[in-house]
Amino acid sequence: MKRVLLLAAILSSATFLVSCGGGGGEDSTMVAAENFEASVDATNGAKLFKALVGESFTYDNGVPDFETTTATQVDIVDAPANAEGLGFRISSDGNEATGSLEFGSCIFRITGSNYPSRLVVGTFKRVRDCRIRLNTAGALADGTVKRLPITVTLRGRSVTKLVNVRIAANGTILINSVLFGECKVRPITGTTGGA
Question: What residues contact residue 13 under an 8 Å CB cut-off, 6+ apart?
Answer without folding.
Answer: none
